[in-house]
Design goal:
Shape: globular
Structural class: mainly beta
Largest sheet: 5 strands, antiparallel
Strand content: over 45%
Number of strands: 11
Length: 112
């Protein structure tokens, strides 16, 4: 692990270094978790996908690197580095990596 976990903060200087992209498949790594949020970094091989599904909580997606097609409800969005989306509970969503891709997923456990 390259990140720094101190009592007051958790720091990752380079998210791309925290998740390897497999030759085939999807890898995930939980970077942080507490009573309010869970942060997971995914590495997708080109062509891999998480098919459309829903979640009972708010969540956000951030494309760290690579390119992907994001399904957000009835919309299909081109995701490039820097793409960020906030999703409300029960929104159907999915992702298909067009190239090797890293994605940061944050799941928010507390209601707003």
């Amino acid at each position: 692990m390259i990140g720094i976990m101190a009592n007051e903060y958790t720091l990752f200087n380079d998210l791309a270094r925290e998740a390897e992209i497999p030759e085939n498949g999807i890898l995930s790594r939980t970077l942080y978790q507490d009573d309010h949020v869970k942060v997971i970094l995914f590495g997708f091989a080109a062509g891999q996908e998480l098919t459309a599904h829903t979640a009972p909580m708010r969540a956000s997606i951030h494309i760290v690197d690579g390119s992907a097609k994001l399904t957000l409800g009835s919309d299909v969005i081109d995701g490039a580095p820097g793409t960020w989306a906030m999703m409300e509970p029960k929104l159907e969503h999915g992702i298909r990596a067009l190239t090797p891709t890293r994605m940061l997923l944050m799941m928010y456990k507390q209601s707003r």
